[in-house]
Amino acid sequence: MSKINIKSFFSIVISKFVLKISKTFLKGGSNFPGKIALKFDKNILKVISKDYKTIIVTGTNGKTTTTGMTFNIFKQKGYDVITNNTGANMLPGIVSCFVENYNFFKDKDKNKIAILEVDEANVKFITEHIKPEIITITNLFRDQLDRYGEVYTTLEKILEGVKNTPKSTLILNGDESLLGNLSLENPVLYYGFNKFNQGDKTIELNADAKFCKVCKAPYKYNFITYNHLGDFFCDNCGYKKPELNYAIEDIVKLTSEGSSFIINHNEFFIPQSGTYNIYNALCAYSISKFFNIEDTLIGNSLSKQDSSFGRQEVLNIEGKKVNIILVKNPAGYNQALDTISLNKSQMSLAFLLNDNYADGRDISWIWDVNFHKLGSLSIEEILIGGDRLYDMAVRLKISGLDPHSFKLSDTYNDMLNNIVECTSDEIYVLATYTAMINFRKHLHSKGYIKKLW
Q: In which pathway does it act (predicted)?
């Protein structure tokens, strides 16, 4: 049996009990057991994580999908691997994950890996107790402005945590201009696109990081993948995209059903559409190659990756194909709309907008989303719901969509009924975080989703 002090022992035992109660009766509660554990022992994370090599995935968009992809690759390789797959990515949720998997009897397995999605502002709390093998940063976009502020503030929050652990290897998105020239002690590897024929060279007016982080002159681009990501350079001071260690060499196919692309002269396929999911797969590939996992295994795992928990999750509701897509900021929303635009068949769209704490109280960001792109699609019905449904209705009307096609849903049950009554067989549901969570809970209560978490 592992030797731990009495305070840590009671912290683990009681939080394990609370975790079991939460899962049995509340069908969730992935943060609360961690809060209980921390009340008994504020340093409990150091105790329960000591047998693991840890990988931290942070950044604005793509954390959950990248973490899931990486977890599945490592699991297929045969590692004893754990992850916070419920998306509880703050300190209490991370503690809950380790508590759930803690064994008082010493485990002889030396290949224990923890792959953790971590909220940007919580990296510093995690690295106080854990020194990860890898910290990866996916990207930096405006998100929850009332909580994070602008992208530069988000970066500083993450770097506070990185500075706690100077020996951790950083695997960074090299197409993200904010992540170059960081002046850190850590070893750094970069991933990104070496080629992208679908991209533009002119940055959008509402892109997030348009000016050089060194001299503040506007960036120029050889290509843009989306928002401000791409092959950037500053012709004023010479700052430019770093050399990539892991790169997309070409896009073979980009459809509404999935994407094929070339890495390291090998072709990979993922059953998730959108450029942003190619980034997620490339990030998972980069982490895996750090651990010397072979390309064939990575490719096999990625090709079987399920979309779940609101990330292009596909459900069958009364014979209709319902795609749930989490949207939380302009960059991600625009990528979702680009992905939907790849589908040329008839469809209906549902929009769910909430303004709870986890969504961000400030919803002004919806005015930076390019909803006008939807005007070229074959849309039969437009369903609108959530706490701020009228704000969303006004935004869509201003974008040129026909308000006579709008169906407003005051409750999630109304939204479900409107989906069932749609004349089209395919519906895309674009929902902010708490709207997605609550709508999924409602679908679970009606039997349309078997596994809630």
A: Cell wall biogenesis; peptidoglycan biosynthesis
